[in-house]
Design brief:
Shape: elongated
Largest sheet: none
Helix content: over 70%
Distance between the termini: 30 Å
Order of helices and strands: HHHHHH
Number of strands: 0
Number of domains: 1
Structural class: mainly alpha
Length: 159
């Protein structure tokens, strides 16, 4: 149970930190090789780009967890306290609908990538791993949105 709680609290943060650290290390290695050794790494920019893509999609879920996603603040700020909870729940549900659609269409795109057998030019990585980033990111986002809806429903008072 403690392991699940730890993952629930930290999974996105850990994945984003790992991706950012790897991306930074790869970019530093590329700069060192290019300017000190006068020889570029052929794969470094591609790997950094793919790590960035993964970090962005995982970061969407982390933003939902922290309740930092975009909303219409002006409407929320001026809404009466009695309807703020419902406004938030509707927002979460609309975002959840979008996340589920992204997962569905993302799976279709990953399936097309698998059938095409396309690989990345520099590293030769099957492109379905790159195109899986939105699927994984929005599955995590959907989980976080369901958690937010449950929290909003259970909350005794709403700000």
């Amino acid at each position: 149970m403690k392991a699940l709680r730890f993952l629930d609290e930290n999974i996105e943060k850990m994945l984003c930190v790992i991706a950012l650290a790897l991306m930074s290390a790869v970019i530093v290695a590329q700069v060192f090789c290019r300017y000190v050794l006068n020889s570029s790494l052929s794969w470094s920019e591609e790997l950094a780009r793919y790590l960035f893509i993964w970090m962005i999609y995982i970061g969407i879920s982390y933003g939902v967890k922290l309740d930092k996603h975009i909303c219409v603040d002006a409407v929320y700020s001026f809404a009466p306290k009695s309807i703020k909870r419902y406004y938030a729940i509707v927002g979460y549900l609309l975002f959840l609908l979008f996340a589920v659609a992204m997962v569905y269409y993302g799976i279709l795109v990953v399936g097309m990538q698998i059938s095409s057998g396309q690989v990345s030019p520099a590293m030769g990585v099957p492109m379905q791993y790159v195109y899986a980033a939105p699927v994984v990111g929005f599955v995590l986002t959907a989980i976080r949105l369901v958690q937010k809806v449950i929290e909003a429903i259970k909350a005794p008072e709403w700000e």
